[in-house]
Amino acid sequence: MRRSSADTKAALLAAARERFAAAGFQGATIRAIAAEAGIDPAMVMRYFGSKDELFAAAADYDLKLPDLSGVDRSGLGAAVVSHFLNRWEGDEALGLLLRSATTNAEAADRMRRIFGEQLLPVVADVVPAGAAAQRAGLIATQILGLALCRFVLALPPVVAMSRDDIVSWLGPTIQRYLEADTGTL
Prior knowledge:
Blueprint (H helix, E strand, L loop, with lengths): L4 H23 L2 H8 L3 H8 L2 H8 L17 H15 L2 H9 L3 H20 L7 H21 L3 H5 L2 H17 L6
């Protein structure tokens, strides 16, 4: 049965996400990705041009950050932590990107852009003018640290924590980043 162009591209992206997640950027090959998708390796190059471009497409990630303006100010930290837990648990693409970002410059740049383009504007809506970049960066340290420890390294004490425990421990830290006076960070 012949696949449409959209189906072929979707199959390649799905296979690429799995292969990059399992083997990392360096270990994943165009041949292995194509074989997993049941597609000739030349098709990968036709649709994506290079392994780097395929990776970029496979690692394209929407954080789907909520509008925090409707959240009670005292619950902002907990809302952010809960949201990120939902995103990490619901989609392996961000885990793929995090694993790859530690060894691949393209992946690291992609991670910086995702957090800069998506987290920064949301934070800017709730913090004092001029403080958004620093605070978004601090929030990223906590969220990425949690993700690394829980979903990539699988540190047993962190994996064993319930969602509620994580929110209750990490939420106040994120809350502080969002509401502290500029001079008290």
